[in-house]
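>> received
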Amino acid sequence: MKNRFTSQIQKIQQQLIQVINNVVRSRYWRQNIAFKILLCFTCSLIVIFAGMTMEKATTQTATAPVFNYQTSWLGNTIGKGELRVQNYIDAMYVTGNGLVYTNSIWDEAGMEAAIYKDGKVIGFLEDLHGWYRLGGKAVTANNKYIYVAMRQGGMSSKKEGYPSEGKTWYCVRRYDLTGKPAPFPGGNGWDKSMLIISDKSEVTGLAMVDNKLFVSNADANIVHIFNTETMQEMGKFSVTNPGGIAVDPRGNLWIIQNKKGNTAAKIVNYDQSGKKLPQQIVDVVDPTAIAIYQPINKQDRLLVAENGIRQQVLIYNIKNKPVQVGTFGTKNGIYSGVPGEVQDLKLYGITAVGADSAGNLYINNNGFNNSGTDLRKFSPSGKLQWQLLGLIFVDNADTDPKSDGVNLFTKQEEYWMDYSKPAGKQWTYKAYTLNPFKYPQDPRLHTSPDAPIFRRIQGKPFLFLTDMYSSFLQIYRFQPNTDGEIAIPAGMFVKTNVDSPGIKGIKANWPPYQPAKGEWIWRDKNGNGAFDQNEYDRSEDYPYLGGWWVDTKGDVWKALRTEDGIRHYPLQGLDSKGNPIYNYRSMQKEKTPSFFKDLRRIEYFPETDTMYLSGFTVEHPAIGDDWGVVGSEIARFDNWSQGNRTPRWRTVIPYDTTGKREIATASMSVAGDYVFTVTSKTAEVNIYNATTGKLVKKFSPGPEVGGESGWVDIPHGIRAFRRRNGEYLVFVEENWKGKVIIYRLPIS
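>> returned
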């Protein structure tokens, strides 16, 4: 009975955490009143349930009909199980024997702080996810404990061990070496393992010398000193905006003094009592991590991760006055040579650096705007020993059709596939397509896009990205002779703000010069990848969107959740810089077929003049708002451009009419002779015959990924493609374990 009750509680918890996850991941709150009421109600319920867990909607293959298909995956070195490569690594500490302790603010599956060894994930630190707990940006360890920066958010109830509602504790939390919290007298939090450092800003650095734990408190401009056993404060001293800390062989501290306002970053030197020493390093731009390096016959070396344009690890001799004596990694990192092309020594977005006693180097790249984990170990000679990748977060994949499914793109990455290899081994990380130094206004640096649509327009490649709320459609072009593998910002559609048509489409200081109200189209007319004053076209329209589509000719389609809800933007050609041209002057408004009352998705195929629409209908209405789902029906229309609005067929798709949302169709994709859909919580793929609308097959994640998946919760969370040999590739978002699932279907 107890187990059954626990199971029911866990199911409810999973439903609640998904709502919170969706909000946390986004720059925007849900954009209608009904949702906000629901969110408030949800938050009030969370305190009832102990031990809230992460999104974990598992689908077992045993429930699906058996037929010949293979499940594979993309973007994560490890495809199944409790231990896989985490979403991000914000901080890292490496022990002498090569144990790697990491920390990050967020991991979807609750592995904010992990333990790696010899290219494997061997454990993680418990209880940093749920109940308003998150990880942080610092970690250190000794032979008894692990110390991590973390956050504890407030609760709406007066529950002991939590800050009050609306408050946050920024803490150091102590763990034993098995990853379990290690409480101490006077400790805070529900299990007394947290040491509160601030209620204003996060802990930015941790280091130890003997029994002293040094903690950077950037907001207060203080480095605190605590006893590692009692966790009592032993002292403190002033440092302007302190960050990461490293301890040299003499026991002195080297502290990153982060850039603040007009004050440039530098690295300063203190003894353990807090006395400032004269040595300092000032020839750095953006130091993000620091560590001591002691290779054979080369003592007193300091490693500094330089995340500026150089994208290298700088090596200093610090025995006397600091002198740079070397670098590690190719100068300019991934933007050297062929820009964006992944190579062993090309670094990008460096967040962590460390070394073991044998002189091996460990470097983590997060990309920019948290693109994903790329953790590498190098020998003292600079040879790559192993690499662990966790590149996917709220994303899906699409293929360059010219490559016949071999060349795949996600929102920031490019992959090459070899389908002759075993599942999970078929992908090679080819390129990182974002360059923040040449294109600092790239929308991927300022928004949270997902779900690529890749198209060839007049033979040229283009990447289109939308987001979880269909707020925008971003457009990127490629110019290999000048930018290598980099996707160059080319255009962007932004919808009318949902709160009011009289407010900016994006309520932020970015992008510059955006229209003061309504929706807009931006085109990079001068080809510099920046949002300039004369590059906007504006309008106002109904603010509630169902989804975007880009057809094979390059025309853009938009589904609005209203009776005249179809917007068609015919491609007006390519400009002199190679950007697709769209404008409101040529936009066409089309009526939604009358049986649809809430249009959600649209896919048009000009080759056959066939339109596929989905949404909620008169016969099968929505229960509540159900803002993100495909709807209750899909319909096909032939001869659409000739005015036909009589459907060839209508088919009812999975949708829970009880209001519990246990079953809902999250996304759809048409390819070849089939219509593919995927459900949100169970991640079950349904295949319908595109000629008849009849259900053909259904299936779920296979044994290759442990028969499990997270929820599919983005509008374009499934993308299908038919190869020339008749095989279908189906890409599905799998956010929980940080990958894209790939189904290979030998359907003719």
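>> Helices lie at 2-25, 33-46, 480-483.
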